[in-house]
């Protein structure tokens, strides 16, 4: 189960809170405790985040979550996806969806265009002051990349991302996983550039698959930037079962050479070390939260040669030792 840093839970509701909604009502039925959102090192599940986003949509009757001057009624994303499904290519599908959103005139202009490097998505907020933490700007940009990957049924590499504000040091470690590419801050605009494959990749999804995706929205579009058959996903599944599997063992399990495995992961915007670290981090937090296993036992389960190596890694993830994190101190 993928997890998300508590910062994103904390900031997710700010647009609705500024519109007068109470945090208690927004988290109702999600299984979340808002006191956790600011607890150092706390992470919540992607499923819980999806439920929280749906609650915000419903409470405001606005898929833009209160971050723009005018609301966008729930159902707009579904209609945009239906238009995208009719595209002659992934790029054409995204352009159709963007034209629909632009016609709504709800406060965000989205441009889809071909550039020398590939496919560029640029977003322009009419009133950026309504999103002072840049939460929705980043969420919106990520959605376009994830939608491109979903339409193609495979990974479309993210090449670069530009932002017209300073580097978000407070949550940059998590930010890097959301935008696994080159970054430019304090730039002139907000845009992402995808690999040129997006310009001609066919739309491979069916109406039935769209219906299933929308039924779980925004979960799938938040958590699946690649297809189920992506190499990164296969590697994560193997590492979830055996966190200490070596490169050679993973190459054998996936039917690839070690060199090709490394290359394909790089093309998907990740590395074996990154996936292994994410798997260990997520599993460590689940074991510390849900059981009474000792730190030594957890370290062994995660494939660490000794407990102090695990403790050192955990401090890098959360700023706390495993014991202190478990105690909530």
Give a short account of the largest sheet.
Answer: 5 strands, mixed
How many domains? 3
Provide the β-strand percentage band.
5-15%
Shape descriptor: globular
Task: State Rg.
Answer: 20 Å
Q: Give the SSE order as H and E letters.
A: EHHHEHHHEEHEHEEHHHHHHHHHH
Q: State mean pLDDT (0 to 100 scale).
A: 88
Determine the structural class based on helices, strands and strand pairing. alpha+beta
How many helices in DSSP terms? Answer: 18
What's the total count of β strands?
7
Helix content: 40-55%
Distance between the termini: 25 Å
* Order of strands, widest sheet: 3-4-7-5-6
Low confidence ranges: none
Polypeptide structure, described:
- This protein is an alpha+beta fold and 329 residues long.
- It folds into 3 domains: 60 residues, no CATH class; 159 residues, no CATH class; 97 residues, Orthogonal Bundle (Arc Repressor Mutant, subunit A), CATH 1.10.10.60.
- The strands form 2 sheets. It has a 5-stranded mixed β-sheet with strand order 3-4-7-5-6. The chain has a two-stranded antiparallel sheet with strand order 1-2.
- The longest helix has 19 residues.
- It is globular and about 60 Å long.
- The mean pLDDT is 88.
């Amino acid at each position: 189960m993928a997890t998300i840093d508590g910062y994103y839970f904390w900031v997710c509701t700010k647009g609705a809170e500024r519109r007068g909604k109470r945090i208690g009502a927004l988290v109702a039925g999600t299984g979340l405790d808002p006191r956790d959102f600011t607890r150092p090192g706390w992470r919540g599940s992607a499923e819980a985040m999806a439920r929280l986003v749906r609650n915000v949509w419903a409470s405001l009757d606005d898929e833009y979550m209160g971050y723009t001057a005018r609301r966008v009624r729930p159902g707009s994303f579904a209609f945009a996806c239906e238009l995208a499904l009719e595209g002659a290519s992934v790029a054409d599908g995204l352009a159709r969806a963007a034209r629909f959103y632009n016609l709504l005139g709800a406060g965000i202009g989205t441009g889809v265009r071909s550039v020398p490097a590939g496919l560029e998505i640029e977003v322009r907020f009419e009133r950026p002051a309504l999103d002072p933490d840049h939460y929705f700007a980043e969420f919106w940009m990520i959605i376009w990349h994830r939608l491109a990957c979903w339409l193609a049924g495979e990974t479309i590499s993210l090449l670069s991302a530009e932002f017209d504000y300073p580097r978000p040091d407070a949550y940059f470690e998590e930010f890097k996983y959301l935008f696994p590419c080159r970054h430019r801050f304090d730039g002139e605009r907000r845009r992402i550039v995808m690999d040129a494959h997006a310009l001609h990749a066919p739309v491979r999804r069916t109406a039935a698959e769209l219906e299933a995706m929308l039924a779980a929205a925004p979960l799938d579009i938040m958590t699946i930037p690649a297809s189920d058959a992506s190499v990164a996903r296969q590697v994560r599944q193997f590492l979830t079962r055996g966190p200490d599997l070596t490169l050679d063992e993973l190459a054998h399990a996936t039917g690839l050479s070690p060199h090709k495995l490394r290359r394909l992961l790089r093309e998907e915007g990740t590395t074996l070390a990154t996936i292994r670290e994410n798997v260990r981090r997520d599993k460590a937090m689940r074991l510390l939260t849900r059981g009474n296993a000792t730190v030594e036992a957890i370290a062994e389960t995660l494939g660490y040669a000794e407990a102090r190596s695990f403790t050192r890694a955990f401090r890098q993830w959360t700023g706390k030792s495993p014991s202190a994190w478990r105690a909530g101190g």
